[in-house]
Design a protein that fits this description.
The protein has about 350 residues and is of the alpha/beta class. Helix content is about 25%, strand content about 25%.
Length: about 350
């Protein structure tokens, strides 16, 4: 990686970044763990990072395809500024090829015709105008547009706005190191625990995702995990147990685990939606592994945070809305245990 100051990129340089190194007549992109080796004019697996004149250019810098104000609970992040709103943005492209992607219209395309030009300054101004406490980089994989997200996040930090990534977890060690002091929280997908499934079906790397998760925890970032449970793909007791045990033992038992129901989409229309009983079985498996905070998603079940110390009901979420929150400065009001999360 080329030396980079933690300053917003000047307008004349936007789109170019130092997240690459040279290897012969190619450059090696360092934004994700594919480490694409690009000849002049060549674009990486994600479809949006290009070797232009021997430099890495992010073609989606400032090209926003989706922009919404969402409850932070929708990301989902349950232990991060509850009941607040996040200005959520995405571009196009992805470094995975999940056949069940629910945002495939933007993640599985390189077409920028439906995008519109927005500067980092405009994004932050909008977040301030709308009272958003955070900016979420989401919808498609944010790692592939990190040079854009980085500039937005640096400006946001100047105004006290936090930044969160909703990601498949293929960030490189180089990017993770740079994110320190810039990105505050993550929701990382653990889409299964079978390396071949990751490689052949998703076109990703389980080993890379697990390493990212460990690095994020070691780096002091707030982390929550999500598993979309797809019938027949990752819903066995064995696989769910491996995911839960990894979180409990390699991260910590207080890392929230979101277990979400699949619904048919994109190329996968031959499976039924995930039964509620499957989610409840996953919840039991997570509890057996020692996880303290487990939440079901995409089903009509309340998301309740209980105190791991005394069992008191602390936060109740109905859908994406918080209906109860009795935390006192991040602590249980009964036993005064500190509850893991980012509360202010």
């Amino acid at each position: 990686m080329l030396p980079m100051e933690k300053k917003v990129t000047p307008p004349e340089e936007r789109g170019y970044s130092g997240f690459y190194h040279k290897e012969g007549d190619r450059i090696v992109c360092e934004l994700c763990r594919h480490y694409c080796k690009l000849k002049e004019g060549q674009v990486g697996i994600c479809g949006v990072n290009k070797n232009e004149g021997g430099r890495l250019k992010t073609l989606v810098y400032g090209k926003v395809s989706a922009l919404n104000i969402d409850p932070i609970e929708k990301k989902p992040l349950y232990h991060f500024l509850p009941a607040s709103f996040a200005l959520s943005l995405g571009t196009v492209g992805c470094n995975f090829q999940c056949p069940f992607c629910q945002n495939w219209q933007i993640s599985q395309t390189k077409d920028l015709s439906g995008s519109y030009d927005v500067t980092p300054e405009q994004i932050v101004a909008l977040a301030l105008e709308k009272g958003c406490k955070s900016i979420a980089y989401t919808y498609n994989e944010p790692t592939i547009f990190y040079p854009f997200a980085r500039d937005v996040a640096l400006l946001a930090k100047e105004h006290g706005i936090k930044n969160v990534f909703v990601s498949n977890g293929l960030e490189t060690p180089e990017v993770i190191e740079d994110m320190k002091g810039i990105i505050d929280g993550f929701n990382i997908d653990i889409k299964g625990f079978n390396p071949e499934y990751y490689k052949k079906t998703l076109k990703g790397s389980l080993e890379g995702v697990l390493d990212t998760l460990k690095r994020l925890k070691e780096g002091g970032f707030w982390v929550e995990c999500t598993t979309l449970i797809v019938p027949g793909d990752n819903d066995s007791d064995e696989e769910l147990g491996k995911i839960a045990n990894f979180i409990a033992k390699e991260l910590d038992p207080y890392t929230p685990w979101h277990i979400s129901a699949f619904h048919p989409d994109y190329k996968v229309n031959d499976k039924l939606p995930t039964p509620l009983e499957t989610l409840k079985r996953a919840e039991r498996i997570g509890k057996e592994a020692g996880l303290a905070y487990i939440y079901m998603g995409n089903v009509p079940e309340d998301g309740i945070t209980y105190c791991p110390g005394c069992g008191l009901e602390l936060i109740v979420r109905r859908g994406y809305h918080v209906t109860k929150n009795i935390l006192e400065n991040g602590h249980c009001p009964a036993c005064h245990r500190a509850i893991e999360g980012v509360w202010a």
